[in-house]
Amino acid sequence: MSNNNAAVVEIAQTASKFTSSIVLHSENKYIDVKSILGLFTTLVSSHSYELHVHGPDAEEAKEAIIEVFKKHGLHISVAT
To answer: Where in the numbering of this chain does the HPr domain appear (predicted)?
Structure first.
């Protein structure tokens, strides 16, 4: 699980650089990506996540978050 901890911290740190709202949707739950606690309780590599980003820097935020997810081997799709 330690690699998951690194993923959680890096995802939250990356998200906090942006002003956009960044939310993951997984199994009827919505998780604020800027919340380390929320990520810790829901981030499991076997799950698939849908990314919702809204705000002035949404495109940059999406790209950055997707990169971190890929780096840690987590599955993510982007909501349209």
So the answer is: 10-70
Please report where in the chains the tokens 């939310």 appear, as a residue: 23
Query: Average pLDDT of 24-36?
Result: 90
Residue 31 phi/psi, 5-degree rounding, is -120, 125
Q: How far is CA 21 from the centre of its chain?
A: 11
At residue 5, what are phi and psi to the nearest 5 degrees?
-60, -45
Closest CA to 58 of 4, 3, 1, 15: 15
- Under the banding of pLDDT at 50, 70 and 90, the label for residue 46 is low
Query: What CATH fold (topology level) applies to the domain 2-78?
Result: Histidine-containing Protein; Chain: A; (3.30.1340)
